[in-house]
């Protein structure tokens, strides 16, 4: 280390370091800086005493105030659970058909159902409930068994073709081609007829033959004009909404081998209140319908209410 000396220009002693003729002056630290530094040290010591701070073998020092982030979180969760318990109790005590009579309670049920949907249903129906091939779109007004909130609740609670639940939704279309009920040519004729009534093809000799085959084998469930039947979960075939697809190849596969999609019986996996909230959320997506008796009581767009 170079010898210290007094800088002639400032009269301040140097620290003895020199680089390229540049030397560092040994000026004292500003007093405000020193006091700030000492205050930080005092604060750190006080914090280490008051709060968990010093790591040990198994845990940190507890601190004399007894506070911890885990304890604070547990307290907040307990308070939130207590507040939520009141709402859940109110939902549990309200018949599903009457949830709409209390807008505030219905809104709470929808919000709770949205959270449950994200945890349990998005894997199949998508984050926006738009569905995908083989999984229904829950935003439209096309329903297999019905779209009022009570019917949706029944479907969610008992599932679709779910083994072990005696009340599960059950519809079973025959595998017309695989089981030899129809020949491959007849299957194609039926497909032609379905594509005609759904507006995808123009009438043809094939669709004419298919109309009679449809009447003999399919109309009992799907209706004479393909309007569907919610009593047995038979889809409407005269629109442009398809669960698996309405192109010729997909329809041929459906008629030949049938479809046997399954949805879990959520009543066996989730508590009753959560299932009820899920029903409220699905019903709110845009395709939900009023109960039959409510729909009958409300005037239509072109019907004036009775005086």
From TrEMBL:
Binds 2 heme C groups per subunit. InterPro entries: CcoP_N, CcoP_N_sf, Cyt_c-like_dom, Cyt_c-like_dom_sf, Cyt_C_IC, Cyt_c_oxidase_cbb3_su3, Cytochrome_c_Oxidase_Subunit. Keywords: Cell inner membrane, Cell membrane, Electron transport, Heme, Hydrogen ion transport, Ion transport, Iron, Membrane, Metal-binding, Oxidoreductase, Repeat, Respiratory chain, Transmembrane, Transmembrane helix, Transport. Belongs to the CcoP / FixP family. Residues 108-198, 205-286 form the Cytochrome c domain. PANTHER family: CBB3-TYPE CYTOCHROME C OXIDASE SUBUNIT FIXP. Pathway: Energy metabolism; oxidative phosphorylation. Component of the cbb3-type cytochrome c oxidase. The chain crosses the membrane at residues 32-54. It is found in: Cell inner membrane. C-type cytochrome. Part of the cbb3-type cytochrome c oxidase complex. The gene is ccoP. Residues 287-307 are annotated as: Disordered. It comes from the Bacteria. This is Cbb3-type cytochrome c oxidase subunit. Its cofactor is heme c. Gene3D superfamilies: 6.10.280.130, Cytochrome c-like domain (1.10.760.10).
